[in-house]
Design brief:
Blueprint lengths: L14 H18 L6 H14 L6 H16 L6 H24 L3 H11 L15 H11 L4 H13 L2 E5 L5 H15 L4 E6 L10 H6 L7 E4 L14 H9 L2 E5 H8 L6 E6 L3 H6 L7 E4 L1
Parallel strand pairs: 1-2, 1-4, 2-3, 4-5
Antiparallel strand pairs: 5-6
Length: 296
């Protein structure tokens, strides 16, 4: 299927999505290539791409297109490798302390969800100027996050009978806290096999196989990649293995806005966890901006 093809999108593209991606990525590339004479060509091409994207597209497909424009003009994708390693390292340094807090909670699985939701703050597609001091924002967000009790009851009921849980990951940094939630789930439900799905190639600061290995995710889950370098899980382009696991999963955790935007609606039985990083998403789910959400 062509790279710009669209099919059964979970959440369609709105004007604010186009402008948000344009502004955040231009800011990032201006930092990467200060004073480069090619910047104007990049801006014009990205503006045209954003303005011309069809309504039945979605933000993750547009982000892939922006990365392709960068590759064509500058000879490589937009590089987030330093940021990915920095955030992974910062959260790995806190891993033991955070997991101790999770285990000490009255309900470790629910506490793990609070931390995993809050970690979705680490997103360079929408927040291009994140620094390691943003870790403090994540921890504060986790402390004030609330898990919807009705949704959680349905989640726990499914886990009780589940044999497989497919976890669709999002960004680096936050994957460390995803891992801690997986550990909490496996401690409470040792019969469950967890399959972690990461991206099929480098895109923004999203998690790949190499990133998952760096944080030790494979100790607690079977790690596979989607086969597509898209910052979401776009079903028409995932590989057959990923599609089979999604189709046959007892429980699915869809992490982050990219997975929400590609999957919300097209699949059933999924639980979505994310942070409302824009007013549009907040309004869609009846929340305030920067609130965390756990829904199905």
């Amino acid at each position: 299927m062509p790279a710009n093809a669209c099919y059964n999108i979970g959440m369609k593209l709105y004007d604010e999505c186009r402008d948000c991606l344009y502004n955040s990525q231009i800011k990032k590339v201006e930092t990467m290539h200060p004073g480069d004479e090619r910047l104007q060509s990049f801006k014009e091409a990205v503006r045209a791409l954003c303005d011309g994207a069809p309504e039945n597209s979605c933000a993750p497909l547009l982000m892939r297109g922006i990365d392709g424009v960068h590759q064509g003009i500058f000879g490589g994708i937009i590089d987030y490798s330093q940021q990915k390693q920095a955030f992974d390292g910062a959260l790995l340094a806190l891993e033991d302390d955070i997991y101790a807090r999770i285990c000490a909670a009255e309900d470790p699985v629910k506490e793990g969800i609070r931390y995993a939701m809050a970690a979705n703050y680490i997103d360079y597609a929408r927040l291009s100027d994140l620094g390691e001091d943003s870790i403090g924002e994540v921890l504060c967000a986790a402390e004030r996050s609330a898990v919807d009790e009705d949704v959680y009851a349905r989640f726990v009921a499914k886990l009780s009978d589940a044999r497989t849980l497919v976890y669709l990951h999002d960004n680096c940094g936050e994957i460390v806290l995803d891992k801690l939630l997986i550990r909490a789930v496996k401690a409470a439900y040792p019969h469950i096999r967890v399959i972690s799905v990461v991206r099929g190639g480098d895109i923004i600061n999203d998690v790949t196989r190499a990133d998952a290995e760096r944080v030790g995710l494979s100790k607690f889950a079977a790690v596979i990649d989607s086969g597509a370098a898209i910052p979401g899980t776009y079903l028409p382009e995932v590989n057959s293995l990923t599609r089979a696991f999604i189709n046959n999963a007892d429980v699915i955790i869809s992490k982050g806005l990219g997975n929400l935007e590609t999957l919300y609606g097209p699949i059933s039985g999924a639980f979505y966890m994310f942070m409302c990083k824009c007013e549009h998403i907040a309004a869609r789910f009846g929340r305030r901006q920067w609130e965390t959400v756990f829904t199905d």
